[in-house]
Amino acid sequence: MDNGINGLITESLGGLYTVEADNGEVMKLKARGIFRKDGFSPCAGDRCIVKDGVISEILERKNHIIRPPLANLDVMVFVVSTCEPAPNLTLLDKFIAVCEYKSIEPVIAVTKVDLRENSRIPEIYEKIGITVAVCDYEDGGGLDIIREKISGRICAFTGNTGAGKSTLLNHLAPELEIQTAEISKKLGRGRHTTRTSRLYKLFGGYAADTPGFSSFETMQYAVIFKDKLKYCFREFDEYEGKCRFADCCHIKEKGCEVLEAVKRGEISRSRHESYLEMFEEAKNIKEWEIVGK
Fold it and tell me: Given pLDDT bands bounded at 50, 70 and 90, which one contains residue 117?
């Protein structure tokens, strides 16, 4: 009985998929029409089964982000520059919330450290257990931290336009220079209009570059409803169940332990402000409007 060939989709482009089979074979093929009929789109990062020359089955995903379409991510590396562009902590917190929601490990790579001091970012995020790599290309500082985090895993790099994703990738692995330029050309067709996604081999795993952005909507990556949002801020966890009201949203309720922790400096004020902004956005999300996203 033919059980098919197991593999990993490494690229999706115009309805044609590149699959790297577990036996090392690389194939370019189409997917069964049933996927389109069911409104399901295979994407890079999907584990699949190939039968009769087509992708016949997509194995269960552990996570999936909407745009760019990527599945089964282990790590998301957020490239944040100290200046040009200046760091936007609200955008960073939105990305981190998506990672928490999707069970993806967030890692922050701080770039352009030769141009400006960056002490605030490590102070805020290392405190809550997020890895921060301060990347100094003169002495290679921070690069080993990133290599260790992504080795043997499926990861993606993202960040503001101009933050230095390609520069970071080329310092991590100089041999990828042509590939990253090619990927940037394919993916950079316009903000939030990605038509393709691609994984390329890196340190025993796979990495995806993503388009830069100058604005961000959480729903472009994942839909997080307001009742789930507080669980995407890990520093709130130790106060869960300690508020006066069991259904406390940590906004302005009396007896809210999270608000008290912010006042005491135990929770970063900037992080809580990001949460408040995201909560206001989440209040306007209607479940029936995003079915299938």
Answer: low
Those residues with Cβ within 8 angstroms of residue 292's Cβ, 6 or more apart along the chain or in another chain:
39
Which of 2.30.110.10, 3.90.230.10, 3.60.150.10, 3.40.50.300 is the CATH number of 70-209?
A: 3.40.50.300
CA dihedral 267, 134, 129, 221 (to 10 degrees): 90
Nearest to 65 by CA among 103, 29, 38, 93: 103
Residues 6+ apart with CB under 8 A from 20: 7, 8, 10, 26
Yes or no: domain 5-60 corresponds to CATH 3.40.225.10: no
Residue 212 has what pLDDT?
52
Say which CATH architecture domain 223-289 belongs to: Orthogonal Bundle (1.10)
The β-bridge relationship of strands 47-51 and 131-134 is unpaired
Reported pTM: 0.85
Cβ neighbourhood burial of 39 (10 Å; 0-12, 13-18, 19+) = exposed
Report the alpha-carbon distance of residue 211 to residue 192 in Å, rounded: 8
pLDDT, tens digit, 9 for 90 and up, residues 65-74: 877 789 999 9
Give the three-state DSSP class for 106.
Answer: strand
CA distance 78 to 94: 11
pLDDT of residue 115: 57
